[in-house]
Design goal:
199 residues, mainly alpha, 9 helices, 68% helix
Length: 199
């Protein structure tokens, strides 16, 4: 049976992780959104790419700094305000899949503050929803077909994304993101994300 996105189950699993692990999970999912969906050709040059890049960079810096110094609150507020402005100006839905990339970066910034499990889950949810959006945009998908939802869920893009979310969770769960090994652990997670999330 094909499994879909289960936010409640993921939230429960994220609650079992440390704040540092949740920060890393959020940063990794936000980076996956940016790398794999931030450049999806839709209707032109994606708005918000630079702002998302700055946000993802900040989130990884928060993981690098550790729990004691998660980063200046003013910086988080400024970055969030940039993302909020882009989202609020999109009255016509022109952002398309970038809406999920921007929302993911926004929630990752929130998670960078305290490593909140709920915010971390919302980053993953936007990663899943970006994959879903890309498949829905395929003209070959007949939404009137009663099997359309199953076809979307079974698509390579959605299944690869769901697997990546699980793999990212597993990667961060086996790392502490503390002490001398922190940089190596961050590098290992980022390498997985940059290599196509295992796809």
């Amino acid at each position: 049976m094909i499994q879909g996105y289960d936010g409640d189950a993921l939230l429960s699993q994220l609650e079992d992780l440390t704040a540092a692990q949740r920060r890393a999970f959020s940063a990794a999912c936000a980076e996956a959104l940016l790398l794999h969906f931030g450049s999806v050709p839709m209707a032109g040059e994606p708005a918000g790419t630079a702002e998302c890049e700055r946000s993802v960079h900040f989130c990884w810096d928060a993981v690098e700094r550790g729990a004691v110094e998660s980063g200046p609150s003013e910086t988080v507020d400024l970055l969030r305000a940039e993302l909020e402005e882009i989202l609020s100006e999109d009255e016509e839905g022109e952002l398309e899949v970038m809406e999920h990339v921007i929302a993911g970066a926004y929630y990752a910034l929130e998670s960078s503050r305290a490593g909140d499990a709920g915010q971390a889950e919302l980053v993953a949810k936007n990663l899943y929803e970006a994959a879903d959006y890309v498949v829905l945009a395929d003209p070959a998908i007949d939404l009137a077909d009663p099997n359309a939802r199953r076809e979307i869920l079974a698509s390579d893009v959605v299944q690869r994304t769901l697997s990546a979310i699980i793999r990212i969770r597993d990667l961060v769960a086996t790392r502490t993101f503390q002490g001398d090994v922190r940089a190596v652990e961050i590098s290992q997670v980022r390498e997985f994300v940059s290599q196509g999330m295992g796809g």
